[in-house]
Amino acid sequence: MGDRRPKLEQRIAAEILWMLGLVGLALFDTSLAPTIWRFRVDWVLIVAVGWTLLYGLLPGLRIALYGGVALDLLGSHLLGTHLLGLVLCVLLVALVAEPLDREGQLLTIMMLLGAALLYGILQRREGA
C-alpha cells in the first residue's frame, strides 16, 4: 500500500548503471587520463571517498568494490591491489569522519589527501 521502495528490476538496473559508470571511470583513469595530464589523479578514489563522506560507509564500500574490481581488471598491478586499497581508504575515511561535522570543506580536503596518501603507499607497496 504505502511501499515506496523501487521494484527489483529498477534496483538491478541502477546497480548495472553504477557498475558501467565506474568501469567507464576506471577506463578513463587507466588509459586516457595519464595521456592528458602529466600527474596522476585517481578518479575512482576521489569518487569513493566523496561518496563515503556524503552517504556513509556502505554506499562508499559499494563504490570501492565496483571501482576496485574495474581497476584491477583494467590495470597492470596484481589482481586485488586496487580493491584492497580502495576498501581500506573508504573504511578509514568512514571511521575518522563519522563523529565529525561533514559539512566542512577542510574535512573533505583532509580526507581526500589522507586517503590519497594511504592509497599511494598501498599501490607502491603492492605494485613493487
Radius of gyration: 16 Å
Distance between the termini: 57 Å
Mean pLDDT: 84
SS-derived structural category:
mainly alpha
Q: Point out poorly predicted stretches.
A: none
Helix count?
A: 5
Q: Label the overall shape.
A: globular
Order of helices and strands: HHHHH
Main sheet characteristics: none
**Strand residue content:** under 5%
Helix amount, in percent? Answer: over 70%
DSSP E strands, number:
0
- What is the assembly state of the chains in this entry? single chain
Summary of the model, kept short:
This protein is mainly α. It has helices spanning 8-36, 43-55, 57-74, 81-97, 105-127.
Q: Could you please describe the fold and organization of this structure?
A:
This protein has 5 helices and no strands. The chain is mainly alpha-helical and 128 residues long. The longest helix has 29 residues, at 8-36.
Topology (SSEs and partners):
Blueprint: H1 8-36, H2 43-55, H3 57-74, H4 81-97, H5 105-127
Helix pairs in contact: 1-3, 2-3, 2-4, 2-5, 3-4, 4-5
Features:
128 residues
